[in-house]
Write a structure and sequence with these properties.
- This is ENTH domain containing 1.
- InterPro entries: ENTH, ENTH_VHS.
- GO terms for molecular function: clathrin binding; phospholipid binding.
- Pfam families: ENTH.
- One of its GO terms (cellular component) is plasma membrane.
- It is built from 7 helices and no strands.
- The chain is mostly helical and 126 residues long.
- The longest helix is centred in the middle third of the chain and has 17 residues.
Length: 126
């Protein structure tokens, strides 16, 4: 899977920022590392990198079905960036609120019958 991702990154000519977001939001069955999320949050202070990061997050957040981990990890990364990145991340989130709101109806049931899209929040989201 890593080789395939590396080739795709090369072929699509993704920037360093986009590659880091793709790595953090991969379909691998483990979460993004805190060091990788820190690197990405540092990149949000650069205007060009911020745009690339946010565009890739919105892109990954719109994945469906078997790529449910892209969605989950995008939300996890976005949460980290809101807390630790540039204040402009918050502005981008406000502007892209529709992308987040569409996830209210997200669902995916895997081959084992487990609902991977089930929300386990303790309080309602407004």
């Amino acid at each position: 899977m890593a080789l395939r991702r590396h080739v795709k990154n090369f072929v699509k000519n993704y920037s360093d920022s986009e590659i880091k977001v793709r790595e953090a939001t991969s379909n691998d069955p483990w979460g993004p590392s805190s060091s990788l999320m820190l690197e990405i949050s540092d990149l949000t202070y650069n205007t060009v990198s911020l745009l690339e990061i946010m565009n890739m997050i919105w892109h990954r957040m719109n994945d469906q079905g078997k790529n449910w981990r892209h969605v989950y990890k995008s939300l996890k990364l976005l949460d980290y960036l809101i807390k630790n990145g540039s204040k402009k991340v918050i502005q981008h989130c406000r502007e892209g609120l529709f992308n987040i709101q569409t996830l209210k109806n997200f669902h995916y049931i895997d081959e084992a019958g487990k609902d991977q899209g089930k929300c386990s929040l303790t309080r309602p989201v407004n």
